[in-house]
Design brief:
The complex is a heterodimer of chains A (about 220) and B (about 180).
Chain A (H helix, E strand, L loop, with lengths): L1 H18 L23 H31 L3 H15 L8 H6 L3 E6 L4 H4 L4 E9 L8 E3 L1 H8 L5 H19 L11 E6 L2 H19 L3
Parallel strand pairs in A: 1-2, 1-4
Helix pairs in contact in A: 1-2, 2-3
Chain B lengths: L1 E6 L18 E5 L4 H12 L3 E8 L2 H18 L4 E9 L22 H15 L4 E7 H5 L15 H13 L6 E7 L1
Parallel strand pairs in B: 2-3, 2-5, 3-4, 5-6
Classes of the chains: A mainly alpha (about 220), B alpha/beta (about 180).
């Protein structure tokens, strides 16, 4: 467990380091390998730096494990989450995201909506985020570039409506990934509402899209 | 992440049995503009496939790179092929009620872009009757080992994800485009 936690914290640290950049245009995928003035950091220095981080992560993991073990002995999920939160606060210094128990108690949330359906209509069924993102792929007020006609002209015929649905789902998920900000601990929630032509077909795969695929691929 | 669907008011095509021809050497191949996909593209040509190369571009600079890479592949292989670059992003229109600003800076970026990229290739494969979709990726990156930098990179080539993707698209009845994962070291 300690080894797993050490690696997990290391991964978080490296991810944050790679993300450091001075401007939006910087190639953050590789910025970790370069110094502030753009010079390549030698491989030896990179390895030594990584070893230092790994050692620090080892110490943090040692501090966190007792909290983890105590949380596993708790009888209720809320008490376990509280203990874990205490551990995160004491070892890493940040608050964990809202617990699933608290989230499930509320109505379904939305922070990304496709289309211009009025807010008051949506509020009948959903709790809307204050920072709600609207994505409009079509029409005069469209706010994204998504030119399906380009693909259709390439293949020489109009796409099947089920394939159009698939493309739109993929595109909306990508845009949501771009626009929904992460918390300092890298966690976030994306709750999207997408109008589709073949509702029945897509409702069948909602759980698969949610849990097994996109949360993992998108590193939620 | 949760996705909720609602009905869109638009005429729908009928869903029928999408059977694609068995003996075809056509394939759809993702071409990101990087090294792995360029090597993979050459591989499909050397194997005698008739590939359609699909690129997704999030910026004009990337489109230029993808065009150059495709030209280079054509030059080196001496073969002709079809290549499409699909650009997406926020609209550059200056008017509208729901204009999107620049995306927020994030330490982890665009992981789900690879999901869209895969969908793009699947859609083209489906509509052009290709049975195979090739995604070329460096071996370690494809498996995303924990505690490596590869762990923070794309995950849509992981065998578990591909299995899930096939199952999901299958359940939604877009099952005939066969996915292949080609791991190159």
């Amino acid at each position: 467990m300690k080894l797993f936690l050490r690696y997990w914290f290391f991964y978080l640290a490296i991810t944050n380091l790679r993300a450091k950049r001075s401007s939006r245009e910087a190639d953050y995928g590789f910025s970790y390998h370069f110094s502030g003035n753009g010079e390549l950091v030698s491989l030896e220095s990179q390895i030594s730096f990584r070893d230092d981080i790994s050692e620090q992560c080892h110490r943090i993991a040692n501090l966190f494990v007792p909290y983890l073990l105590k949380s596993m002995k708790k009888s209720s999920p809320s008490h376990a989450a509280k203990k874990l939160a205490e551990g995160l606060l004491n070892t890493l210094g940040f608050e964990p995201p809202q617990s699933p128990v608290e989230q499930e108690a509320a109505r379904p949330c939305l922070n990304v909506v496709v289309g211009s359906r009025p807010r008051r209509t949506l509020e009948i069924d959903y709790d809307l985020s204050d920072n709600l993102i609207r994505i409009l792929p079509y029409g005069q007020n469209r706010n994204v570039s998504f030119n399906l006609a380009l693909l259709e002209s390439f293949v020489g015929h109009e796409f099947h409506t089920l394939v159009k649905d698939l493309l739109e789902i993929g595109f909306i998920v990508y845009m949501a990934d771009l626009y929904i900000e992460r918390q300092p601990n890298l966690a976030r929630r994306i709750d999207v509402l997408i109008p589709v032509r073949h509702l029945k077909a897509w409702q069948q795969v909602e759980p698969q899209l949610d849990v097994l695929s996109l949360s993992w691929v998108g590193m939620m | 992440m949760t996705i909720r669907f609602i009905q869109r008011k638009e005429t729908c095509d009928e869903i029928h049995d999408f059977t694609l021809p068995e003996n075809s050497n056509k394939c759809c191949c993702l071409l990101s503009g990087g090294l792995d996909s360029a090597v993979g593209a050459m591989w499909t040509l050397n194997q005698g496939f008739d590939p359609i190369f699909v690129s997704h571009s999030s910026s004009p600079a990337l489109s230029d790179i993808q065009t150059c890479v495709a030209k280079g592949i054509a030059q080196v292989s001496g073969r002709e092929f079809r290549h499409i670059i699909f650009p997406t992003g926020r609209s550059k229109k200056r008017r509208g009620s729901y204009r999107l600003g620049a995306p927020p800076a994030s330490p982890l970026v665009q992981h789900l872009r690879s999901f869209f990229f895969l969908i793009l290739a699947t859609a083209i494969a489906f509509e052009t009757e290709c049975r195979r979709v090739y995604i070329f990726e460096n071996g370690p990156l494809a498996l995303n080992p924990l505690a490596s930098e590869a762990h923070t990179n794309i995950r849509t080539v992981h065998p578990l994800f591909l299995q899930e993707f096939r199952s999901t698209t299958g359940a939604a009845q877009i099952s005939t485009a066969r996915l292949k994962r080609a791991v190159k070291h």
